[in-house]
Structures are given as structure tokens and as C-alpha cells.
User: Fold this.
Amino acid sequence: RLVQDIRERNDPSLAKDWDISIQDQEETFKDDLRAASGVGKRRKGKTRASGPALSQQVRSLIGDGNQAFVDSDLPGAIRIMQEVIRIEPRAAPAWSVLAQCYEDIQQKDRALQLRIMAAHLIHDAEEWDRLAQENLGFHQQALYCYRKVYSLDPSNVDALWERAVLAKEIGDLRIASQSFLAILKRFPHDLTVLSEIRPILLELGELATGATLFQNAFDHYQQRFPAGSGPISGPPGSFSILNLLVLSDLYNTLEDFDKAIRVIKAGSRWLQGRGDQRYWDLLEDDREFDIEGINRAACNLGTFLYDVNARHRLAVARIRMGDANEGIMHANIVLQEDVLDYAALFGEIADAYYERGMWMEARPVYELLSTDESTSSVYILLQIASCYRMLDELKEAADIYEHVRLADPTNNDAKMKLAEIYEILNEPRKALDLVYQVIDSRKRRPKDPSQPNDNGSSAGNPSSSLFSEDRSSKNTKSSRANPSNPNRLSQAQLKELEAEKEKDVLRIYRRIKEIWGRDVEGEGGESKGVCSG
Assistant:
């Protein structure tokens, strides 16, 4: 289309009629990955041509254009080279000289476009690499250039790395994941690459893939260093306790608690230089890591220092799988630490208790977190109130919900929970008032809040790119809209959740009116006077 534009008219707008879709090029890129890694079959396609034999007329015109360029006759050189392209679009020298002309007249964006066209004809990996680095803020264009580098030179892992990092930076997580996985095919179990791809896989919800990658790396380093290396501070092959915790967290999130326990125990043992002590695996409990003062029915075989973070993972896995005694033992040891230093661990232990219905154990942990401003939150207070309610201590639960309601009048969840408690306590007037407040706030809330449209955030003008750059900006906004909450809900899920909340409100509303109606009938004239007022 760009060639057709040059043939039919001499218009400066090249990008409007020439738009390469990067999605259309991904299959070719995957073919190149298959060819480089030896995994999978490459699709049949045409081989690259070395270029056409130029006619005498075209060679003569190219010579005239070159002379005009040497004589600094840039308009003449542009006109002649456009004529060359009109006659023979595959003449690479014409594209290169034309690009240099536009570079000299300070039209760098168009010069870059023309160099990209020329690069398709000369098939030079180094040229594609230079073009990628000169992307002028056109991220999709740069991603395409890095893809071409790797297609032409599969040994150039640096291009794959740059492509992955750029895709991650602009929020194109799918391309980032594909690129990092391609690097791992060349360099399996590389911990630097694993650390980069881990948050991407979490964001994409590909937890099983992450667990497989880290498990394979763990197995690999165990085979290289069977006995471990001694102190946990000096892990072999740089496979550290942090990598072990990541793998355990992945298994806990996948609710594969047996694997989480097995990995954290065997891994900690290996990092301590006791990799050959596999007899510990014959025991179903965790006495291997008991501290002094713990007496079991059977004799203890010994105690070993244990990282508090690793013990926390054991506690969470044991509690969530239903092994309460072992889980509580680990949790109590972790809870002896300073809450300010390990607030996150305390919160996860409390949540594990809560999920298993162990409200008596969860409540004091939540209350401990609520004692300091830096560790307390509305969520913590709501969890404390919920524990009180589940333990039938309704008055205490109501007091906390009321405290949250006064501190945050917009918290409809606290109001609804408080209304339910007032209903149970036979105080329908208070409950109905809260329900009315929730209904009124939801009526005032806009249905579809408008999002600010920031058109000036991109580094370059998207219309000057050969690619649609909107894709990267949309991905960036969607992936970074709420970085503190990786489990955010989609629009459809939010609507479904809101519909469920509306049903709950209406159900409570009807129930309260029913109870209030019976109370009014039973109270006689006094109640009627109150109602008439």
C-alpha cells in the first residue's frame, strides 16, 4: 500500500495508508521460535528472496538519485527515488537513499518508516536492531523490529530480552511472557529470567506455568548440588530461600498444599546442607523443625533453625489443608515475632484461620494487627467484626461495624453487615434505616464512571508509526489501573456482584419490614402513634 501510494500520488501521509498489524506477524515469529528451539513444526512458507535483478533503467535512475543526493539536491533526490520505487518497489537502495533524504530534512518519523521498508528487502539483523533502538517512542513498531532481529538471527537472545522488557514496560504481558519463555528454552532454569516472568504469569493468571518453571529449576539445582551448600545464607547456584518461598506460594495459591509442604521442607533442608537426609520425608509431621520446648508423643530426632518465612508457609499450608494441630504450632512460633516487622505474615495466618472457620484463632491475630495504625485497616476491622459475629458475640460485632460506619460513611458493606446484626437483635428500625442509606447511596452512584482520556502520554504521535500504537496504551492502562490489587474484577463480574448485593439489600429490606410490621401490631396505640409521626 505504501508503494501504491508513491505510485499514485506524492502525498506526505505515508502512515495512514500503511498499517502493519503486529498480530498478523506473530505466527511467523512463533515459527522462528520453533525453528530455533527445535520444538514444534514450522509452517511451510516461501523462502526469503535475495532481491530482484534491476533493469538498466532502474539502475540509471538510482545513479541519478545518488548524484542528486551528493549534490545536496534533496527534493530532486526524493523525486527520483520515488520514481524508482514506482517502477521497482523491491529496489532497496532507493528506500535507503529516500530515508536519508527525509532524515536530512528533519522528518525523522518518516525516515524511520522508510528504513523499516528497506530492512524488509536487505534482511540484515543488525539493521533491524538499530531500527528497534530508534523506535522514537513507537513501542509496537519497536516490538516488531526486535521480532525481526530474532527471526533473522536466532542466536541473538539480547533482542528477545529487549523485546520482553519493552513489552512488560508497556503492559503487553502476553508478548512479554512469550519472549521470556523463549529465552528459557535457550537458557533453562535461569533465575534472572524466572524473577522477571513471575509477576507476569501472576498477572495473567498462569500460576500452573509458574509453578512448573520454578519446580523444574528447583529440581535442576538439586541435581547439580545434591547435598546443598551448608548455611541457608549461602544457597548453591544462587537458588535462594526467596525462590523456594515463591514456589511454595504458587502451590498454596493453587491449593496444592501437599506439594507446598513437601517443597518447603525438602528445600529448606537442602539449603541447610542436609539434602541427603531424606528420611525426614517418612514422617507425616514437621518435627524436623521443632523448636526447643515442644514435646511430642514420640521422641524428637532433633531441631534445626528454620527461616520464619518458610515456617509461615508451612503454617498456612497446614491450616488450609485442615491439619490444625501442626498448623497452629507453626503459627504460634511465627506470631512470637514483632507484628510491625511481619505484619503481612500475621495477616495471611489470620486469613488462613478465617477461611477454615477457625474464628477463635483468627480473631486475636486480627486484633493484634488492629492495635497499630501502620498495620490496621478497614479490612482488618471488618474481619474482627465478622469473627465476633460468627462466635455469636453480636453486641461486640455491632460496635465494630458501627465504628467502621462512622469512620467511613461510604462503606456500604459495613452498613449491610450491621443491618443484619440489628435484624438478629430485633432492632428493625435501626436496620431499616441502614438499608435505606445503602439504597440511597447506590442510587446516587453513577452507573458508568467516565475514565480520563490521556492522549498525551505516549512518547510519539501514533499516526507517525507503521503500527497501531493504541494497543500498547490500552494494555498499559488496563494492567496498571490498580497495581495494588492483582485480583481485580472485570466489568461483568462487578455488575454480577452488584446485582447480588442488590438482591441482599431487597431481601433484608423485606425481612425488616415484616418484622417491623409485627412489632407495630403488637405495640398497639403507642406504636401506631410512632408510625403516624
